[in-house]
Queue: 2 jobs
Job 1
Amino acid sequence: MAHDESAARRSSAELTRAGESQLVAIGKKPVLREPDEAPKRAKPRWMRELQRSITSVDELAKRLGLSAEELEGARRAEQAGLPLRITPHSLSLLDRDDASCPLRRQCVPHADEAREVPGDLVDPLGEEAHEAAPHLVQRYPDRALLLVTDRCALYCRFCTRSRMVGDGGGAVPLARLEPAMRYLAAHPEVRDVIVSGGDPLTLSTDRLVRVLARLREIPSIETIRLATRVPVTLPSRITAELVRALRPYHPIWVMTHFNHPRELAAANLRALTRLVDAGFPINNQTVMLRGINDDAEVLAELFRKLVRARVRPYYILQADPVRGTGHLRTSLAHSIEVYGKLQGHLTGIALPKLIVDTPGGMGKVPVGPEWIVERAPGRTRLRTHRGVEVDYVDPPEPG
Ligand code: SF4
């Protein structure tokens, strides 16, 4: 394990003393500013890019020919609910004249966000009911989710946490994460911590390092996962300085979120290469989205590109029933049909599991086409991707 013990065990209190926060306006609302963002120091390129993000209807309308539905959706987003925020990088990839562009539909608000459909939930994964400590969610015995900020580089219109992201809280001060840290220390059965939000890579490197250093003071935590969409939306954030700063806290797995092959542009591929070369395994979770990627050819192209970039296609997630996302979600039957077309046509390392994260936070369930036709004692009839039925015969019971 590449692990610089002295840096990893550097006391988080020491790091905290080095980094008292101050307020700064980034985007629409004031957020905590880190010492490395002090005005006399030139801001890194990624921070300047973040500040140039589109956050208002007027800016958006200047850059895109908005449809009436998009204009209505953007006006609504400006006033309430999940805010509007699109990075310059993501803007550069989407089609400016086509409202049906699959990248555009993921980030440009739509009037249908105001529409509720049966089954919609504000908190579909029951995260609030599973809060173990402030900013800490535990839905499984061996892992927990640490929510370190409500900020993202871009607000995805299908976001499961739309109830809380972008609500103006910004980065959670380390002192406010301390009850969560104490809970983790008192529960050694939690071996895997997913650092999420919001997007943890919107934090300054110093602040993120302080969070990781504090987690690494808890010996029972084996793996840390960084859940981030920044490799998709703000690849300039994946700097040499960032990977150097994070490496001492390995093993860190990166969980990212590419939904369409067009999101793998040259800058995104460079960011992924930098992470993989620095020893960060990357898993990708794709959300099945109606009219965006609910097509076997689109998904096959995405997964092949990810594998070439040394990213493991980990899950296809059936979209969570988040309030106001009915227009983006597929039926489960359609998702299973699309998934069935991938089986047998993609190498196993490019084929993720299709997962339903059940409403209410009851846990993930893998789903797929019915490959088992019939079970009988000692014999199971299977249907292959060729449509052929074949019997598998069990060995005789011992003795
Ligand atoms: S980056 Fe993640 S948390 Fe942020 S809006 Fe997108 S899906 Fe939600």
Note: The longest strand covers residues 282-288.
Job 2
Amino acid sequence: MHDDKQKSYCEFCNKLVYYYIESKEVSESLKEKKYIYNKKIAYCSECNNEIAVNKVRDYNLSMLYNTYRVENDLVSLKVIREIPKKYNIGIRPLSLLLGWGELTYTRYFYGYVPILRYSDIIKKIHDYPEYYLEILEKNKDNISRFAYDKSKYTVSKLITNNAINKSIVKQDLNKLKILYIIALIKEEDEDITFTSIQNVLYFLQGFNYAFEGMPLFNGNCEAYYHGVLCPFVNDYLSNNEIKIDVREYDSLVLNSLEFSIVNSVIKFFCCYSSEIIKRFVIFGNPWKNTVKPVLESRPVLESKPVLESRHIPIDKEYIKTYFLEIKDKYKINTPMDIKNYTNQMFESVQQY
Ligand SMILES: [Zn+2]
């Protein structure tokens, strides 16, 4: 599998030879300190002596410098390279804007490690568009009008978008959570009905109680003929179109435990038909206890029409108690164990 790219000069064989590469951990000095990193070493395929290969040497240098950056808390090359694109500015204008030599940023961009003071400035610019904008305004005379205009447009848009995202999250976390979770459910099963979505939300609410002692959303669940209604989502479902890019909000709306609860519930419930999911709901005590007083005084034949027209709020304590019980009963120690419950329930409800 050799090709010409894999050939390099061997001074022992005095010709171009194929080579192979091995890695080993080495300790090397840089600026009077030792750094440990994984170095690649090229060997001649014919005489097995170590030989010099340009691209291997470049790779090792970048590994050594990366280690150096990490251990000295210096800005990474990745961050340095992101900034011109992020703020829509050329490398040279950026350098001038910062009040540095015209080629300083260019050197950093191609791997030269900045001194600590410059490194801190680069990090701050990267993390805070507001700080970049401040510098852009202050030093705009260092760059062309055109470079200033296009960078200003980009950074202003970025700041506005960040502000919008933050205020949505802050003001309406509940709404965003619901939209986000519905989008996740639809990603798993695009044909799922609104009826089933609401039943799945009920289980999310319940399992969140079991793990975190509190509900995932604000608002009540209501028992009715097809399982559970979640009136708090009706506003969002009624427009029939959920426009949200779930990945944008991944870590924003749910903590990591909630995220695994949501993922497990979706995974272990959405694989069943809407009829089976409904049976999971109405086999549970919260639903049974809620409809019991309403149906008690009526003949069995009337139960269907009654529950089709009436929605009865489920007491939150019923939900909390029940899900804490099943967490115990089905040995649900982590969200992945929720399948113990669904597997078992599926056996029971099939015979219904
Ligand atoms: Zn050789």
Note: The beta strands are 7-10, 15-30, 33-44, 50-51, 222-224, 227-229, 312-313.
